[in-house]
Amino acid sequence: MAGEAGRSVKIQIKDVKKEYHGDHGTTVALNGVNLDIMENEFICVVGPSGCGKSTLLNILAGLHEASSGECYLDGEVIKGTDVKRGVVFQQYALFPWQTVIQNVMFGPQMKRLPKSECEAIARKYIKMVGLEDFENSYPKELSGGMKQRVAIARAYANNPEVLLMDEPFGALDAQTRAQLQTELLKTWEEEKKTCFFITHDVDEAVLLAQRVVIMSARPGRIKRVVDIDIPYPRDQATKSDPRFMELKAEIWNEVYQEYLEVRK
Amino acid sequence: MSKTKQAKRPLTKSERHTRMVNRLWLLLSLVVALLVLYLLSIGKKTGRSFPFIVSINGRDSVLGGLQTMIERKALWDDFANSMICVAMGFGLGFVTALPVAFLMAWYTPVRKIIEPWINFIRNIPALAYAPLIVLLLGVGRTPAVVLIWICTFMTMCITIFHGIRNIDNTLVKAARVLGANDVDIFFRITLPATVPFILTAVRLGLSAGLTTLLAAESAGAQAGLGMRIMTLKGTFETDAMLGYIIIIGIIGTLLNTMVDIIEGRLTSWQEKREGA
To answer: Which residues of B fall within a CB distance of 8 Å from A139?
Structure first.
């Protein structure tokens, strides 16, 4: 996949190392992480808790800085946050004092676009996630799934080139999660944005991704990258595809080995 | 789950019911309190300290005591003076606590230097250092205002400071990745996220202002609810004294209700715990 003709490298992760200096000495969260992510690619990262997947996402978002090594977007070093890199957090991170539409138009407003334009953009993406009837509701009035839909709409409204998603469906029940996966697949096939998606759930990773990155813990590094050669469009029915089950079993075993390793 | 804007909507049947039940409880609570006061007022020993609200069988009563104070042209002056002191002290406390709390939250040296002393002074009764303030500033309204200022400042500063520190950092991150700069983050994230804590601080500050009233007016005030209570002690006029005490309580309750109403308007977006 990486060498596919006509596709360029969108994100380059080069020799990234991240150390945290705490009261109990230094923890190496990431070490020697190298990865090329192609334009429009959908990458899922799986691995046991503490393998540094969120750290890696935070570095790509520009919220954390690598201790050594660099990340590049279109060949430019990533430094600080940028609207080209949108982030969806597990805990939704909606602004509770703002209505749905105010949340979604936050990004366009930061670009100092005129209000009517901001509203038009927000309405487009609120429609995309199917929440037209709730644009004046406050986050507290929404269910978890609806909140995450708003967060996704908010990220899209900024028209980022890359979407970084940190276990976005981790806090949702199984049915809502399945529904949002299907919606995300559909959106990705339409908008073809580069997606970097972190998850605990191997099913989810195999269903969504073109490549699944398996990480190992202590220190976090990339153990293996698996090509998911199942054609799109995919949906929940893909989960009963024999190839799906094969890949899922393979990746699941590998992640489980890592999990046992961490427990030692 | 309402689809429309959170405008004034008619209360549902169950909400009307809850409201009525709550009112009945309040009424019952009042009846119990009056009963307790009545029993105290007819006791041989307790009756002297606790006269009943209205006169029964010609005994001294709170309303009678207050009537006397009105006739002496004292009640209104006392009330007005105390309210001016509390308003000025609280106002100064608020406008100083707000920036200091933000400075403490943003700059570690500021916090490290100020916080221990606020915590140290906060636990000392204002009455203890009131004489020092009076010696410094002379008698009159100024020491009273300054004393209330000190007390309300400390309470509100600590409360707002902890509020700012507890802002969910994910919200700041979310704003940053959406392109917000530091100024945007202050006005669009930090400030609205702090509003609930500012309101709690106002609530605690008003209460601190009223409870400091006695200490504040303990030396040299010309008039005031706190000053009058201490004067009445000398003449054993417990009826008027209890009346003044109840007035301070009523003022406190009214101010608290006012903050409740403002809170309801400004922070209706907050997730509330069930039954809270």
So the answer is: 269
% of residues, chain A, pLDDT over 90: 61
At A93-151, the pLDDT tens digits run 999 999 999 999 999 999 999 999 999 999 999 998 889 999 999 999 999 889 999 99
Pick from A87, A107, A136: CB nearest B5: A136
When scoring B178, B198, B267, B269 by the number of chain A Cβ atoms within 10 A, the one with the most, hence best to mutate, is: B178
Residue ranges of B 157-196 with Cβ closer than 8 A to chain A = 168, 170-171, 173-181, 184, 188-189, 192-193, 195
Q: What mean pLDDT value characterizes chain A?
A: 90
DSSP chain A: -TT-TT--EEEEEEEEEEEEEETTEEEEEEEEEEEEEETT-EEEEE--TTSSHHHHHHHHHTSS--SEEEEEETTEEP-S--TTEEEE-TT----TTS-HHHHHTHHHHHTT--HHHHHHHHHHHHHHTT-GGGTT--GGGS-HHHHHHHHHHHHHHT--SEEEEESTTTTS-HHHHHHHHHHHHHHHHHH--EEEEE-S-HHHHHHH-SEEEEEETTTBEEEEEEE---PSS--GGGGGSHHHHHHHHHHHHHHHHHHHHHH-
| Beta-carbon separation of A89 and B170 below 8 A | yes
**pLDDT tens-digit series, residues B242-276:** 999 999 999 999 999 999 999 988 888 887 654 43
The ipTM is 0.86
pLDDT band at B235 (very low <50, low <70, confident <90, very high): confident
**A96: chain B residues, CB-CB within 8 Å:** 269-271
Alpha-carbon distance A223 to A214, whole Å?
A: 6
